[in-house]
Model the fold of this input.
Amino acid sequence: MNPTLGACPVCGEALAVTRLWCPACDTTVEGRFQGGPFAGLGREQLAFVETFVRCEGKLNRMERELGLSYPTIRARLHDIIRAMGYEPGEERPS
Done:
């Protein structure tokens, strides 16, 4: 199974999810569905987020697991934060 695409491979604009299908009972639901904040992330970014969660957000554990330097991990994390529509270090109102 392929991961969900967040952007059109032709023009780069955001894709809209309009159909969901259950392989167990063959039910199809059609409409316009929101993908959520992770929908726009690429495969490598999602793998990074999975590692981040598995390491409980501890960047020193991520350094060991990924074999990357602390600045590289921070830069990738900041790229993901921006891809989700936020700015690193910026607090959002409650």
